[in-house]
Amino acid sequence: MATEQHWPSVVVPTPAHSSLADCLTYTSPDALAPGTLVRVPLGKRDLLGVVWECPTQPPADLACEQARAVSSVLSGISPLNAEWRELVLFAAQYYQRALGEVALAALPPQLRDLQPDQWQRRLKKAAKPAQAEADLPNEDTTAPALSTEQVAALAALATATQPVLLFGSTGSGKTEVYLQAAHKVLAADPLAQVLVMVPEINLTPQLQQRFTHRFARLYGAAAVVALHSGMTPAQRLTSWLAAHTGAARIVLGTRMAVLASLPHLRLIVVDEEHDPSYKSQDGARHSARDLAVYRARLVTRHGANCQVVLGSATPSLESWHAATAGRYLRLDMASRVGGGALPALRLLNMAQQPKGTVLAPALLAALIERAQRGEQALLLLNRRGYAPVLACHACGWKSQCPSCSAFRVFHKIDRTLRCHHCGLTERVPRACPECGNLDIAPVGKGTEQLEEQVTALLSGQQRPDGQPLRVARMDADSTRTKGSLEAQLERMHSGEVDVLVGTQMVAKGHDFRRITLVAALNADAALFASDYRAPERMFSLLMQAGGRAGRDAALSSGAELWVQTWHPTHSLFTALKKHDFPAFAAQQLEEREAAQLPPFVYQALLRAEARTQEAAQAFLAAAREAARALEGAEHLTLFPPVPMAMQRVANVERAQMLLESTSRPALQHVLTHWHTALTACRALPEAKGLIRWAIDVDPLAI
Ligand code: ADP
Ligand code: ZN
Ligand code: ZN
Q1: What is the CATH number assigned to the segment(s) 340-384+447-594?
Q2: In 3D, which of 248, 426, 444 has the Cα closest to residue 358?
Q3: Is the pLDDT of residue 35 over 50?
Q4: How many whole angstroms separate alpha carbon 530 and alpha carbon 528?
Q5: In the CATH scheme, what is the code of domain 9-126?
Q6: Rounded distance, CA 550 to CA 644, Å?
Q7: Ligand number with the minimum distance to the CA of 148
Q8: Which atom of ligand 1 is nearest the CA belonging to 147?
Q9: For residue range 509-541, what is the model confidence (pLDDT) as tens digits?
């Protein structure tokens, strides 16, 4: 009599587009529950895998001698539950990726790398109580009395059965609503867990502090954990384990957190839900916001109740449309807590300013006046570096990147030319490389130059304490080193800085109390961009940026948002002036419907990268022909291949083709059945030189 044998099918990280199946069959003397973490051999390697099923019979098509044995089982950790597995399966199918890739990418990297003995030591450490009571914050942990609007929103939220869109002005107290909604959920069920997502790593420490202050005394400081890519692998594993075991009651994270194992998830909050960072730009390119909505529904389908709240002052047009159509429940909080006024919009017509104006004289005067009163100002310029191009006026040479279809940016600080796409960095040449002319000059303006010019313009002016005015800059360059962002934010909060120059990075979320003036210096690019989402992004950026001003009600009566523009009569500004997002959204949605753009149609992109543009396009053209032949293709529009806007990056040519349909199931159906053909197209002689291809479902940029 043979000993009992099991045939677990195990999900392993298979390379993208490989011919390997999603699940590989192994053997095991023991029955392994679905969701069990195991290590299995694949080729010469030993990999982490997730057991998907564990039948007692081998699959019919398997030659028994093929199957290898599971190497080991990760002990001391419970299996990933059915909800998690269903979520991961959905994400893989919807975004057209291998199940193994999505499943393993959702697990902390250290879990993949630890050997069994290291794993045992790790588990022991995790079992120890993380933080002593003495470390608990001393701050006031009581909730403030709620505004009428907050009360109404919370009451409506308590009974909502659909996804909730919390449409609240900046400073209306949305975070307080999240805190109290979380409190209610946690108090009602001793196991319940809450997931709160923010778009940027930078915003998690602030939020973590607020949640820890509120909940540490109730549930212990270890009940609140963060999960984002800025953490060390060890920290990430600790947080992930806390979430998986249920020790963490609140998980705060960026988009990656949506796939964390949270067995008792009862509430998901997606803050700043309109933010493009929720859509990942590599791997499965999933939208964490959309997966959050799916996940809440999934948990509810499994018998527990899980709510999802999407919060924003400028919701994505997708969510706004869903609310208008009644699929989401919209809750409004129009007023600012404490009655602070939203900043008044002042448009500066650049056509009426002196030639070559950096800051319009009226804006400069306002800056000085406010700084002299001890208030702060924010100047937004969406371009880092000193100048976007360096040029020779004698021969026309420009600082083109040799490897990309882009110019290298002039950084004066270290006198380099840097490509922001491939990273190529070189010393600025002494003379024009083409003609030897010594007089090569920067063209256009970046934050570094603006900082320099504003400093010069403000020199001689004083703060109330008699000190000279201080100008600082905050962008991806100034915050590159660890801790520098925190240090800069602190200088801003402490009032050490009077005028902050920065990219959109400074516009997001930070609660600067003494800012009363925000100015956007180059908003026009978005008005006439070919990207149909550009106006939506600009509107939200300006609302967000404006939202930085006047958060302190005592100072807010004179809070202003200034915009320098050549097109002051543009409809975007008309709506912005009235802080009328609904009017802006209605107008944009009308245009989108007329032009048959999302959210009225569904899109996917097939992207190809190759040594030559011809090869990339040949692959796409063949793929397009193959798609045409598929069942359901008649419901799709298949656009011809085109070079991408950034056609060449690091000497790789890029092209894409767009698929579009008014039916999401039809689009999904074709995408799902396309894969075999795509693999075949790759082998075509005309596609020689193809490096990689990928599908982007619901792309944000076309
Ligand atoms: P939002 O997330 O909508 O921008 P926040 O929740 O951050 O707004 O609230 C803005 C400020 O108002 C915060 O400093 C917060 O502590 C405070 N706040 C929120 N709700 C109340 C309330 N009901 N009473 C007093 N202060 C509040
Ligand atoms: Zn020259
Ligand atoms: Zn480059």
Answers
A1: 3.40.50.300
A2: 444
A3: yes
A4: 7
A5: 3.40.1440.60
A6: 41
A7: 1
A8: 23
A9: 667 778 889 999 988 888 888 889 999 999 998
Express each pLDDT in 561-618 by its tens digit: 999 999 999 989 999 999 999 999 999 999 999 999 999 999 999 999 999 999 999 9
Contact (CB, 8 A) for 84 and 42? no
- Residue identified by tokens 């960026």 is 254
Integer Cα distance of 629 and 94 in angstroms = 21
Maximum alpha-carbon separation in the chain: 96
Strand 23-27 and strand 9-11: the pairing is antiparallel
Strands (E), 589-689: 602-610, 636-638, 642-649, 652-661
Give counts: helices (H), strands (E), the chain.
18, 29
Long-range contacts of 18-24 (CB under 8 A, 24+ apart): 18/98, 19/679, 22/92, 22/98, 22/99, 22/100, 23/52, 23/53, 23/99, 24/49
- Using the mean position of ligand 1's atoms as its centre, give its distance from the Cα of residue 175 in Å: 7
* Residue 563 phi, psi (nearest 5): -130, 125
The answer for 651, left when phi > 0, alpha when psi is -120 to 50, beta otherwise, is: left
Nearest CA to ligand 1 atom 24: 144
Does the pLDDT of residue 4 top 70, yes or no? yes
- Give 142-336's CATH code, choosing from 3.40.50.300, 3.50.30.10, 3.30.420.40, 3.30.2130.10: 3.40.50.300
C-beta of 552 in contact with ligand 1 (< 6 A): no
